[in-house]
Structure formats: C-alpha cells, structure tokens
Amino acid sequence: MRRLFFATVMLLAFGVLNVGHAAELKEFPTAALAQKHCPHDTVVWLNLPTMIWHYKGERWYGRTKHGVYVCEKEAAAAGARGTRNGE
C-alpha cells in the first residue's frame, strides 16, 4: 500500500498523472457566448458538481443550479461526460 501511495505521489509530482483539467475549461454564462468561443463545436450545459453535460432539448439543459455553458470537446477533455439517460 505504501508503494502505491508513493508511486501515485511521484506521478503527480512529475506531471505524468493528471487529476482534473478544470483550468482548460472555458465557462460561459450564455450559450451564445460559448458558441462564439467554439463555432465548430456543440455547446452543452455542464453541471459542475457532477461534471455531467446536457444537450439542448434535454430536461436539464440550462436548468441545474450550479452549471455553465461550455464546448463539448473542452468538457470531455476536462473529464466530464454526457448524461447516460438523455435527461
């Protein structure tokens, strides 16, 4: 167990293992601003606490308490994922 902990710490220290890419994720208050940032990508609503995104037309698009509009590819690169049940 001690070796696993040490190995994980070393990987983090040398940047081999990344935990969270939130700094790379551009967040926008409106879908229009997000679309300007990524004109060739799909804008999604990202629920920040769960890191689950929703597409326009789905139940929670623009409706969760702690969410923002982001570009789908950037959200995926930051470790987020789409909803599994389409809501």
Structure description:
The protein is an alpha+beta fold and 87 residues long. The chain has one domain. The protein has helices at 2-13, 31-37, 72-77; strands spanning 43-47, 52-54, 67-71, 81-82. Strands 3-1-2-4 form a 4-stranded mixed β-sheet. A hairpin with a 4-residue loop joins strand 1 (43-47) and strand 2. The radius of gyration is 16 Å and the shape is globular. The mean pLDDT is 84.
Assembly classification: single chain
Task: Give the N-terminus to C-terminus distance in angstroms.
Answer: 40 Å
Strand order of the largest sheet: 3-1-2-4
Structural classification: alpha+beta
Globally, the shape reads: globular
Largest sheet: 4 strands, mixed
Strand-helix topology:
Blueprint lengths: L1 H12 L17 H7 L5 E5 L4 E3 L12 E5 H6 L3 E2 L5
Parallel strand pairs: 2-4
Antiparallel strand pairs: 1-2, 1-3
List keywords for this structure.
alpha+beta; single chain; about 90 residues
Brief overview:
The protein has three helices and four strands.
